[in-house]
Amino acid sequence: MPSCRICGGVVSELLDLGRQPSANRFLARADIAREFMFRLAIGMCHSCTMVQLIEDVPEEIRYHDGYRYRASGSATHRRHFARVARELLATELAGPNPFIVEIGCNDGVMLETIARAGVRHLGVDPAKEVTELARERGVNVLDAFFGDSVAEGIRAEHGSADVIFGANTVCHIAYQDSLLRGVDTLLGPDGVFVFEEPYLGTVISQMAFDQIYDEHVYYFTARSVQQMAQRYGFELVDVGRSPLHGGEIRYTLTRPGRRRPSPAVGELLADERHRGLADPVTFQRFADAVAKIRDDLLTLLRDLRDRGSTVVGYGAPGKTATVTNYCGIGPELVPFVVDSTPAKQGLLVPGSHLPVRPPQAFTTANPDYALLFAWNHADEIMAKEQAFSRRGKWIRYVPDVRVG
Ligand code: DWN
Ligand code: ZN
Question: What predicted TM-score, i.e. pTM, was given to this entire model?
Answer without folding.
Answer: 0.96
